[in-house]
Design a protein that fits this description.
This protein has one domain: Alpha-Beta Plaits. The longest helix is centred in the last third of the chain and has 19 residues, at 69-87. It has two helices and five strands. It is of the alpha+beta class and 116 residues long. It has helices at residues 30-36, 69-87, and strands at 13-22, 42-44, 50-52, 57-62, 93-101. It has a three-stranded antiparallel β-sheet with strand order 4-1-5, with helices on one face. This is BRCT domain-containing protein.
Length: 116
């Protein structure tokens, strides 16, 4: 097994999303908003090791009938809107791109759990 490839189940579709926020100063809760929408900041390799994605990059997968490119984009946009409202930063400008992932190769750091 290759340590630099991701396990993507055949019955699911997977996407990488990059969400960059401009004009804001409070980002701490944004990752929680993305997690609420089903996004993760990590990805697992074929060996089952969890790897940390680069900043502002998220992974999501699911059944094709519930996870399409537009639906994933809409979920990311929903997380941004909620973050703007909850952080009282309506001036934030978001830059979002969603890409369907079928084969993924990477060289990433191990994910380390952060204490609560």
């Amino acid at each position: 097994m290759e340590p630099h490839t991701a396990f993507l189940p055949d019955e699911e579709t997977a996407f990488l999303a990059r969400v960059q926020l401009s004009n804001g100063s409070k980002y701490d809760d944004f990752h929680e908003r993305m997690a609420e929408q089903g996004f993760s900041q990590t990805i697992k390799n074929l060996s089952g090791e969890t790897k940390q994605l680069p900043d502002a990059t998220y992974f999501i997968s699911g059944l094709p009938e519930r996870t399409g490119p537009q639906a994933v984009f809409d979920r990311a946009k929903k997380a941004v809107v909620k973050h703007k409202e909850l952080s009282d930063q309506m001036n934030i400008k978001e830059h979002i791109i969603v890409v369907k992932a079928s084969d993924v190769w990477f060289d990433l750091e191990d994910h380390e759990e952060k204490p609560d």
